[in-house]
Design goal:
The chain is of the alpha+beta class. It has 1 helix and 6 strands, in the order αββββββ. The strands form 2 sheets. The protein has a 4-stranded antiparallel β-sheet with strand order 1-4-5-6, with helices on one face. It has a two-stranded antiparallel ribbon with strand order 2-3.
Length: about 90
């Protein structure tokens, strides 16, 4: 029982620290990219199976909030409207 309490306490501390660490990681990858083709899907999550929030025109400027280089997706904010979603890194420049 004591071991379980220690594990729970350690997980709580780790979760508390994540509040400060994750935004710092996201901020460090902040840059601007451009939609590479007409009707680029801005998605609800990472993956082609995710729903589309909006279709973006070619040349639309996007602010990268988090770049998941390992997964090939970026969480972005549409410059001008503030809408947020995921785009495939292969489709932006």
């Amino acid at each position: 029982m004591r071991v379980l309490r220690e594990i729970t306490r350690a997980l709580a501390v780790a979760a508390s620290l994540a509040i400060f660490i994750v935004p710092a990681i996201a901020a460090s990858s902040s840059s601007t990219v451009t939609a590479g083709f007409t009707d680029l899907p801005l998605r609800k999550c990472q993956g082609t199976y995710c729903g589309v929030v909006k279709r973006l025109p070619m040349g639309q400027q996007l602010r990268v909030l988090f770049n998941d280089t390992g997964g090939g997706w970026s969480y972005v904010e549409v410059v001008g409207t503030g809408e947020k979603g995921w785009v495939c890194n292969d489709n932006v420049f």
